[in-house]
């Protein structure tokens, strides 16, 4: 079992933030089924981030950091991909979480001394 690093703790915090941000960030939804959709996508993305963090702690490979980078890109672009870029607070929080996740993945890949993986 591998020891966890500060990047793992920070990425787990980002995952937890993504899960709870639809409830803590005030924004307006139209009177439709949009709230359930946004809650579902945020909870799903946060759970995937947390799962990748746990896998990254247990694995002796570098691929979890690459997946974190892809998830960071998804969070960064999801306001436009899912069409909620007009909801400013939620869009900015997702973009900030994506940038932080990308930075954490990059710092893990650049500064970590794990053996190279086959990925």
Detailed description of the structure:
The chain is mainly alpha-helical. It has one domain. 73% of the residues lie in helices and 0% in strands. It contains four helices and no strands. It is elongated. The mean pLDDT is 82.
The averaged pLDDT comes out at 82
Radius of gyration: 15 Å
Tell me about the largest β-sheet: none
Q: Identify low-pLDDT runs.
A: none
What sequence of helices (H) and strands (E) makes up the elements? HHHH
What's the helical proportion of residues? over 70%
Keywords:
single chain, about 120 residues, mainly alpha, about 75% helix
Topology overview:
Layout: H1 6-24, H2 34-58, H3 63-81, H4 88-111
Helix pairs in contact: 1-2, 1-4, 2-3, 3-4
């Amino acid at each position: 079992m591998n020891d966890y690093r500060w990047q793992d703790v920070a990425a787990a915090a980002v995952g937890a933030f993504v899960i709870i941000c639809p409830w803590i960030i005030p924004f307006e939804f139209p009177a439709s089924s949009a709230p359930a959709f946004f809650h579902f996508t945020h909870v799903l993305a946060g759970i995937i981030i947390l799962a990748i963090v746990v896998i990254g702690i247990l694995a002796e490979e570098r691929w979890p950091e690459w997946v974190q980078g892809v998830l960071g890109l998804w969070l960064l672009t999801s306001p436009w991909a899912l069409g909620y870029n007009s909801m400013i607070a939620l869009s900015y929080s997702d973009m900030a979480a994506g940038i932080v996740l990308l930075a954490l993945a990059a710092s893990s890949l650049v500064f970590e001394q794990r053996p190279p993986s086959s990925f």
